[in-house]
Structures are given as structure tokens and as C-alpha cells.
Amino acid sequence: MAGSAARAQDVALARAAALGDREAFERIVHLHGHGMLRYARRLVSDPGDAEEAVQDAFVAAWRSLERFRGDSALRTWLFGLTSHKAVDLARRRRPQPVDDELAAARPAGPASDPWEQAGAAELARELDRALAELPYRQRACWLLVELEGLSQAEVAQVLRIGPDAVRGQLFRARRALEERMARWRP
Amino acid sequence: MATMSTPDGEGALARATRAMQAEPEPGWPDLAERVSRRLRTVSRPGRPLTLQVGDAGTLRVDQRVVVDTVRRAVAQVPGCRPVGVDVRAQEQQVTSLRLQVWAGYGRDVRAVAAAARAAAVDSLQDVLARRVPVDVDVVDVEGV
Hints:
A: 0% strand; B: 40% helix
């Protein structure tokens, strides 16, 4: 579905759900839940935490839909809820680094033979490993822009940081990931 | 820094990103089911209303019940989608209701508004056993 049509559908579903239409909210869950889980699973290391974050985000959304005024896209709002729930969970489990120093300190793994096993699934796993090495904000910015298709302005809303910060985090994430994935060149 | 490319010229990062986007999330079907089950147990905080139900006495009801009743009734009107229901109450009594709807593209907007109002008034009468004034705003037109 085209962007504007998808957004109009989101607004209609959100308004219906805000009035108590549970079927409309179920459709919201099915439209956005997959992406929210994909995002959460790469924000937190534990798959159970990721699923809990998504579930908690939907419960929070259902309870507070009346306060969703449509100033931001529904998708942006839902990803914001997911981010906050994921961070809350991660902080409860262990300290969560949010600065950029850790990534630079991590040693690169041994270069592997690139194309021999460079099927799509292997490439995706390699990217997963590379993402796991990024600090939280870089990872979140990259995932939201490159994987989920949010604009940088929307990412700023999701993560509650300034647009300049998003641009900087994204630049560093892209550079780190390109360097890391470069090992796949024959 | 050089961008590394696959033999077909596409960057490894771009290719990996596409691969990641195309992959299903293995836990999603089960999680979707759990989310649905959980949501069925979650209620929203509402506003209590004490309704005078004709001569039958009073009835305590959450405002959401009134909103949901009206929403369901108005949603049955062809070419009409309810997008806002504002219950106005004084001393916990419903005094009026403001309804916002989207009308289907090409529909007679006034006819849609009249039908929506009638549906809302009738549904309120079923709940409250009296007629309540309803204002209708057609706030947008869409392909309902």
C-alpha cells in the first residue's frame, strides 16, 4: 500500500480503536506488530524481552489510544512505545550502554571467507552480529531508518532525541556497519 | 572508506538489509496470538455515569459503554465511519452527544449526517430510555 494510503488507513483504524473497536485494534496489531518485533528483537539481546516489550507496547497503546491525536504517524507512535518498553526491560535486567564508546572498543572478529556462504540468510545473520556490536542509539537509529523506513524526523520522535543527534548516530552506525560488512567482499 | 560490493555490484550491507527485511520473524505468529488474548483482558479507564433510565431507576455505567453503543450503531450507516464520540454529561447524566464522522467519497454529506444522527439517537434511546440531542460533524470525506 502506498505511503499516504497506509497512513490514512492507520488514522482510520486508530480512531475506530480509540472509540473501543477491538477489531480495528487487532488490525493495527497485525499491520505493525511484525515490524515492532523485528525492531525490538535487535534492540534487546533476549528474545523473550523483545516479545514482552512488544506486548507491553500494544497494551499501552490500547489503554492510551484516546490520547493519540495523530500529530505523528501511528507507526511512529507505536515504535516509540516499543522503544521505551524495550529500554525499561533492558535497564531492569542490566545496565544499558547508550553512548558510542563501546562499539569502537570492541575488537573486530576474524575475517571470514566472504562469498562462499554469503547466501541471503548468512548475510542477514552477519548483519545481526554487526548490529549487536553497535551502541543502543546507533542501533536504534539504523534499524528505524534502514529497516523500518522511518524518516529521521520520525526517529527523533521515537527516541526523543534531536534531529541532529539522529543524523550523527545514523552516520556512525552506517559507517560501522559498512566496515563490518565489508569483510564479505571476496 | 570504500563501500564493499557483491559481485553483482550491490553493497553487502544493502544486500544484507534487504535479506533481513524479507525474513519473517519466527516468534511473531505466536506473539500475535498472545497479544490478542492479553488485550481481551485489558480494560481502559473510563468515566462512570449514573443514568436515570426512564422510570426504572438509575443505572451506573461506564462512559465507554455509551460510546461503544453509539459507535456500533453509526458504523452500520452506509458510507459513514464514526471517528469521534464525545459524551457530554452533567452531574453524571448524559445531556448531549457530539458525533464526528467521515463520509464516503461521493456521498450526500447531509444525508449521511442525518442518518448518523438518527442511528446515534436511536442507540442512545435503547441505553438511556430517553432521547438525547446529538450534534454531528462530518469532519472528512474518504473512500469508506
